[in-house]
Specification:
The chain is of the alpha+beta class. Among the domains are: about 190 residues, no CATH class; about 130 residues, no CATH class; about 30 residues, no CATH class. It contains nine helices and 28 strands. It has a 28-stranded mixed beta sheet that branches. A hairpin with a 2-residue loop joins strand 23 and strand 24.
Length: about 575
């Protein structure tokens, strides 16, 4: 946007200067020569008028230039050539203003203007079309002049162009070294699913190009207020700081994607997939951009999750995006995470590390479409890397780990003690008479999920609840989120306090009570797990067989090892 203003401002200012310097408004050749000289002097470029030149004197001086071209060479090491062609250029001048020496020369209208911006290698980078641009009260006395324009930016990859409507007041001093924006309003469509309305004010220095602007914008999902600095010969080139009361990034849907989705009928039976906690990923041409971004937000929503009191600092340069920090409150816990995205190679490389301390478990699970499953406080830490070309590559290429510890967690949907009591009572061949608990109060919980080879592997699961010690392992496939896990459980004498039928007999010493879990991570948790009673019975029969064998060995004085091999065929 700043560079576009420079191009427009330069065209207008050069025209104005040429007109103000005219010793005679009748000599058409002199008019063109003066304008060409000024273009060469200020920019090193060439002004060419190939069309007809029309001149009317009364009641208003009107100069019409047809088929005019301005060819500007690169204005620095990091800029490219600019080629602008104007279908018709109408200049209206008040004779009275010329006679009185007034610096206001009238109105300029550009029609059917095309601007081509080339990169440093000479390739076409951006193509702009201005159906019409009107400047009222044109002057070089740093007095306000009205500017109205419509701009279309071509989509070089195909699809609909970006359309910008702008209006406001700008000022250009006699030195032609800057453009002052008193207030420039823009309405941008074709970028996001809804129009983006912005207001800019500030100064654009022309050589070297540097824009210092105050910015306010109404975006899909919220509004922002901030400062924008663009400096062509400094690093960062773009320095954007803004604040917002609330911003929902989930509403930042690209226009093309929104149009595609709106053209397809949504099924009434389509289910809404739960969404994971947010990781804000920079978008755009990361290989070329040089930017610093600082954000403060009362609330920041991404992927269905809302971070309050959010603070973000990001630096993008030389193809590497560093999220120095993203901090805030997420599910009543303190989020603090960092991320690096390296796009210098064809395969993007991503590193993510950080933690979430003191998070409310029910709030977190509710956001994942599993409300009222558990309550309490958990702490999470993560250190994860991935690389790939597509989203699927990045998902399947995850490597690293996520660790979890907890404080005062209570599982609300199942009672591990009750389930274990029922299993023991069944084995004891007795009936339960007492009322069993309906939830599981966890006294200790720790686990680690390791990402490797397209799987999320559950390791080191350690859960303690009165009378029960559980240790588990398992894995979930990242491609389809189907998982399986086994939780080996050992019981203690405390279970007998719940009901005499679930007393722990000496036959159970060393017996593992496996809980087998299978399903889909997005499925119903109550259907995931069952107690493997057949395995328990098998272990107990083996224990009893071993006990009987030992008694026989003791009676007969046989070698215990030989007897066991004979009994079990080993």
């Amino acid at each position: 946007m700043a560079f576009l203003l420079v191009v427009i401002g330069t065209i207008i200012a050069l025209i104005v200067l040429g007109l103000v310097l005219l010793p005679s408004f009748i000599d058409e050749a002199q008019i063109i020569a003066l304008a060409q000289e000024q273009v060469r002097k200020t920019t090193g470029g060439e002004l060419t008028v190939e069309g007809d030149i029309e001149l009317a004197l009364l009641p208003t001086i009107i100069l019409v230039l047809g088929n005019t071209t301005i060819d500007l060479p690169p204005q620095g090491d990091d800029s490219g050539r600019v080629l602008a062609s104007v279908g018709t250029l109408d200049i209206g001048i008040s004779p009275l203003s010329l006679l009185t020496g007034d610096t206001e020369v009238g109105q300029v209208t550009l029609r059917n203007t095309r601007v081509q911006l080339f990169d440093v290698n000479g390739a076409l980078a951006t193509q702009l079309t201005l159906p019409e641009l009107v400047a009222n009260g044109l002057n070089t006395a740093n007095s306000p002049m009205g500017l109205q324009a419509q701009l279309e930016m071509a989509n070089l990859d195909g699809g609909q162009p970006i359309v910008v409507n702008m209006s406001g007041d700008i000022r250009i001093p006699k030195a032609l070294d800057r453009i002052n924006l008193d207030r420039l309003q823009t309405d941008i469509s074709g970028v996001l699913s809804a129009a983006v309305n912005t207001t800019l004010s500030g100064t654009v220095m022309l050589s070297p190009l540097k824009a210092t602007l105050a910015l306010s914008a109404d975006l899909p999902g919220g509004s922002i207020e901030g400062d924008l600095l663009y400096a062509s010969q400094e690093s960062p080139q773009i320095d954007l700081s803004f604040s917002t009361k609330g911003l929902d990034l989930d509403q930042w849907m690209p226009a093309q994607q929104a149009a595609t989705e709106n053209s397809v009928e949504s099924s009434a039976e389509a289910s809404t997939q739960p969404k994971a906690p947010p990781v804000i990923v920079p978008v755009g041409p990361l290989r070329d951009i040089d930017m610093r971004l600082a954000v403060t937000a009362d609330s920041l929503t991404s992927n269905g999750q809302t971070i309050t009191s959010a603070q973000l600092l990001m630096r993008v340069v030389n193809g590497v995006s560093n999220l120095n920090y993203l901090r805030g409150v997420l599910h009543k816990g303190q989020l603090d995470t960092t991320m690096t995205i390296d796009v210098r190679k064809p395969a993007m490389e991503v590193s993510l590390s950080g933690g979430l301390k003191g998070v409310d478990m029910n709030s977190l699970l509710s956001s994942l479409a599993s409300p009222d499953v558990a309550q309490g406080v958990v702490n999470l830490t993560w250190d994860i890397d991935t690389q790939g070309v597509t989203d699927e590559d990045l998902k399947l290429g995850l490597a690293g780990d996520v660790s979890l510890t907890s404080e005062n967690v209570e599982v609300l949907i199942v009672s591990a003690q009750a389930e274990m009591c029922r299993g023991i009572a069944l084995i004891n061949q007795e009936s339960l008479t007492a009322q069993l608990p309906t939830t599981t109060k966890v006294t200790a919980l720790a686990s680690t999920v390791v990402f490797d080879d397209g799987q999320a592997q559950l390791r080191d699961l350690d859960v303690s609840t009165p009378g029960i010690q559980m240790r588990g392992r398992g894995a979930a496939a990242l491609r389809d989120l189907v998982f399986q896990a086994t939780i080996d459980t050992q019981v203690g004498a405390e279970l007998e306090k719940l009901d005499n039928a679930c007393r722990v007999d000496e036959r159970y010493v060393g017996v593992e009570w496996p809980v087998v879990c299978t399903g889909h991570l997005m499925g119903e948790p109550t259907d995931w797990c069952r107690l493997d009673t057949s395995s328990i019975i098998e272990q107990m029969l083996k224990n009893e067989a071993k006990s009987k064998l030992r008694r026989e060995v003791d009676k007969l004085g046989l070698d215990a090892g030989s007897a066991l091999k004979k009994l079990f065929g080993k």
